[in-house]
Amino acid sequence: MNRVLAGLGAFSLIVAGALAAPPVVQAAPKPVVTSENDVELGDFAKPKPEVMRAEGLPDGAPLSTDGMVTKTAKPPTLRLTRTNLKPFSMVGVTWQYDSAVDGVSVAVRTKSGASEWSTWQAEGLDDAADDQPDQRGGSAPIWTGPADAIEVAVSTVSGAAPRDLRLALIDPGTSPADADDSLATPAVSEQVPEVVPARAEKGIRGSAPMPRIYRRQSWGADPRMMTWKPTYSPMVKAVAFHHTVNSNTYTAAEVPAIIRGIYHYHAITHKWGDIGYNALVDRFGRIWEGRAGGVNRAVIGAHAGGFNYETSGIAMIGDFATANLPQLMKNAAAAFIAWKLSMYHVSPNSTATLTGGPNTLYSARVTVKVPTVFPHRQTSNTDCPGEGGMRALPGIRYQALHRIH
């Protein structure tokens, strides 16, 4: 832990006005192969034979925070229980993409072998990539940990009912790098050249050093899964702040597998071609490279449907619907945000004008003013980044601003 703290506090010197990169972690030797087992659920009007349609959820199963806006006490729900499955660690439900589908809650509980059922977890809609052909709509992914049995309840609470529903059971695979202690002691130095912004916004003129970022190879990204060629904005005007809605008690060794699961779900299941977030931060204060294309460039992500252009998406690994962010996580998020925005002379404590949509919040293309570090819920119909994330944002903005010199 001390080594992680030291890593977050180690900054490079600013030489001749350019940002020098700090040491970058050593790459894992091989990409990790992930796999997926799909179970067809059918439609709400015609569920598959083993799927039961009911009014209301199973006892103890919650609606997602997004789904709680419903005024229906017993929303139409598809329910399925399956045991003796191929082992998996992450799940999600997808459906034929339809922008009219705007209120779906997915609740799951799992078990492994003879163990007891886990507590229920619930999640709402994941956002969409911009203009990605053949993409599927769906819930955000849910990290369950190793399991071989599942009970799932899919409720439609508003908007059009989704069609062609499929339950995705994802095995993120394993790698010796998952429990590699060297992840805490980066040893390989890589110089990342400064990217000169195409234009500068009014704002700060200082710069912040690049924090230590664990590259895609470190979490075992398999490049063969990518069907998306990196595309770029001329600059980054704002950073969208997310949470991934995973357990908050994961171990340091589980983080690469969690990211691989999200990668598979975004790239393969959703058909976005790559992981949606530009960066992810774990509870131990480590920053991980997400979407491919260069950590120091304005890569267009798939994290805030309709508003991916000229934004960067950073996701906190955990569920902060109510919980508070750990201090190490807030420190790391502020370090990344300060570095990313200062490259384009954008203040972390200002506002930006974005044009985007349509998406889950806007029925047509709109121009909106947002904070330069804005919560995902401000541009999409979602609770993300949760109330804990909302409470953390003012302090993160303030800390990011004061990291810029």
TrEMBL record:
Protein name: N-acetylmuramoyl-L-alanine amidase
Region forming the signal peptide: 1-20
Entry superkingdom: Bacteria
Pfam families in the cross-refs: Amidase_2
Organism (species): Fodinicola feengrottensis
Occurrences of domain N-acetylmuramoyl-L-alanine amidase (ranges): 227-386
Residue ranges occupied by any Peptidoglycan recognition protein family domain in the UniProt entry: 211-359
Keywords: Signal
Entry similarity comment: Belongs to the N-acetylmuramoyl-L-alanine amidase 2 family.
Lineage, uppermost ranks: Bacteria, Bacillati, Actinomycetota, Actinomycetes, Mycobacteriales
Residue ranges of the region described as Disordered: 176-195
